[in-house]
Design brief:
It comes from Thermatribacter velox. Keywords: Cell projection, Cilium, Flagellum. Helix content is about 40%, strand content about 30%. With about 80 residues, it is α+β, with helices and mostly antiparallel strands. The strands form two sheets. It has a three-stranded antiparallel sheet, with no helix packed on it. A two-stranded antiparallel ribbon has the order 1-2.
Length: about 80
């Protein structure tokens, strides 16, 4: 999930796994696999960076959760 900004200034969150395309028309248009389109203030590169950062954090979260489960498994025998 990434936070992006409409042109009226409101911020909303998009499921980045559902993004099919991101275009500069010159406004940035995010198109989802459902066909829904969003015009946002962020540049294409900024949206891509947000997706990369989200996926990086998601990967770290999975590693931390895995470590917690391993610790609990060792504690419980």
């Amino acid at each position: 999930m990434i936070a992006v900004t409409r042109f009226n200034g409101s911020v909303f969150v998009v499921n980045s796994d559902l993004i099919e395309t991101i275009e500069a028309t010159p406004d940035t248009v995010i198109t989802l696999v459902t066909g829904k389109k969003y015009v946002v203030q962020e540049k294409v590169e900024e949206v891509i960076e947000k997706i990369i950062e989200f996926r990086r954090k998601s990967g770290m979260a999975r590693i931390l959760i895995s470590e917690i489960h391993s610790e609990r498994g060792r504690e419980n025998g």
